[in-house]
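This section describes the prediction task in plain terms. A model, or a person checking by hand, is given the sequence of a single protein chain and must write out its three-dimensional structure as a string of tokens. No templates, partner chains or ligands are provided. The sample shown here is typical of the held-out split.
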Amino acid sequence: MQVDKEPAGFPIQSVLTHMKAHRGFSVFVFSLVFLQSSPALSAEGDWPSFRGNDRLTGVAPGGLPDHLVTLWTAEIGEGIESTATVYNGTVFVGGLDSLLYALSLESGEEVWKYKARDEIKSSPTIFDGSVYFGDESGIFHVVDAQAGKGIWTFEAGGGITSSASVVEDRVLFGSYDQFLYCLSRDKGNLIWKLETEGYIHGTPALVDTVALIAGCDGLLRSVRLTDGSERNQIPLGDYVGASAAVVGQKAFVGTFGSQVLCVDLASGKVSWRYKHEKQRFPFYASPAVTTEIVVVPGRDKMVHALNPDTGKSLWTYRDQSRLDSSPVIADGRIFVATMDGVLLELDKRTGNLVWEFVAGSSFVASPSVAKGRLLIGTTDGFLYCFGKKPQ
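The expected answer:
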């Protein structure tokens, strides 16, 4: 593994080519060259799971510096589709080389690596000193977060892209064998499994005593954590590759039928459906949601911002390529990454482009934010860490 310090990971030729297409280039250069003083790095908030919290909202627990620079890049293997997670000063990320990496958040140096059986596309979940993740062969792994040693494994009947959700003594995840699994956290014993009618690609959201999961059968299922029985099924109309985000008693999810839906969990009914008036492309990314805004990128090359109460469009941002990476909201800023390798910062209120970073390789993984830093990996195997420029 090779680690480069600032300003590595900034391909000049790629930037020069891209600046013709993106109006935010001048802002990007200004932020790199004329960096002004910004608030100290946030001392609060890890990012222990795929979307940062049990309800999968994609909202950062702490802030970021006003201007971001590349602090380090780590080359860790054949490619990254796994979203990095952060716990207690350590970054955890899976690689397409079948290795789970633990890196220092401060420097990017390798702490340890753990060999799985196959590619790791799921995002690791950290809970109580253990790392939980699945691989493409269907093996679910639990690893000691400090030592990098395996604790137990469980074999599902299909590949695992779904990230795990952990609650008390249980861990849940979906599989391409169409089952939602619930295992004991200490030994990996099967507590229950629920058969669905399609692949489960997304991550279960935890809401009180139930897990919410959507999959390729086009249903949003509310599943009791105690025994795996279903409280209800809500037809969404099309299959789903994303995870549902929950705020209050509302769940938000995009579908391959070019729609974003809001589901009222109390009534079990769809409150609204959003479909762009002209564009008809799938939503593969998971939404980022607050009480004020729903942000979801699409394969229509646009970022859509919606009113969470009505589903009405607040604004759209049009890019040059499709967007499969899920966004993150940090204070008044939205960070989203594109398939042509550009990390975008948008103003949450207006949708205007504020800053961009050109990596030169596709982003499938999503950004994560912790301790005043933003991390994201590329399909050519580079993990980038952005933060405040060292004094």
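For orientation: The first helix runs from residue 12 to 18.
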